[in-house]
Amino acid sequence: MEQNKTEHKWYFNPSCTLAVCRPAYVEQWMDVLQKAEPSIQLHTVCCKSPHGLPDGSVVVNHCSGCNRRFDAQEGLSAVTVWEVLDQMEDFPLPQYGPMTVTVHDSCAFRDRPKVHDAVRSLLRKMGITIVEAEYSREKSVCCGGSKYGTISPEEMFSMQKRRAEQMPCQLVAVTCPSCMKSMAIGGKTPVYLPDLIFGKKTDVGELNWDKYRQAVTAYQKAHSL
Question: Are 147 and 156 spatial neighbours (Cβ–Cβ below 8 Å)?
Fold first, then answer.
């Protein structure tokens, strides 16, 4: 958070998927972010709803969809937790060497090279070796999760399977809970970056996509203005 911190109001929006899949991490992320910017406040309004924030606000976010929506709003700017944490030189990260992973970049982050760099920097700081997939960074391919409701379950499973098969390593590092579930459904072993950061083993949780999306939708409705 180097960019004129005192001139802006900073907020952390955890995203619906993090709040549903890892509710305990909302408070943990706030503790981390307050070390970088003590004045930061929690903002839980869904990114698809009017945000109610003052002009000049900076929204620290966890989700590629939230990042794009907040960044597109007039008067707002957005930065990911990965970029903020990567700038915190004194944050103690766990060590996992000799773990080797492939990174699945969320498709909505394709045009965010700073996010790609920050994610990989954090992994390397934790002693993790990265084997890049052919289709990564700006060439990343959708895991199928964002297509829910627009294609048949069979087509969605085919996308999840195909994307997982493009990963050269069995372990796949992800930043998105939906991507985490897609990689597991596709036959890979996802490692969720917040789990790595907070020293936890990745539990993919509910793999029934209807139940998962119902929980996400309920959160969104409860957190809309």
Answer: yes
Q: Which amino acid is at 60?
A: V
Q: Does 223 fall in a domain?
A: no
Q: Which residues pair with 194 in a beta bridge?
A: none
Is 0.90 surpassed by the pTM of this model?
A: yes
Tell me the residue range of the domain where 77 lies. Answer: 5-86
Quote the distance between the C-alpha of residue 95 and its chain's center.
20
Model confidence over 66-118: pLDDT tens digits? Answer: 999 999 998 999 999 999 999 998 899 999 989 999 999 998 888 899 999 99
DSSP-derived secondary structure for 66-89? HHHHHHHSTTEEEEEHHHHHHT-T
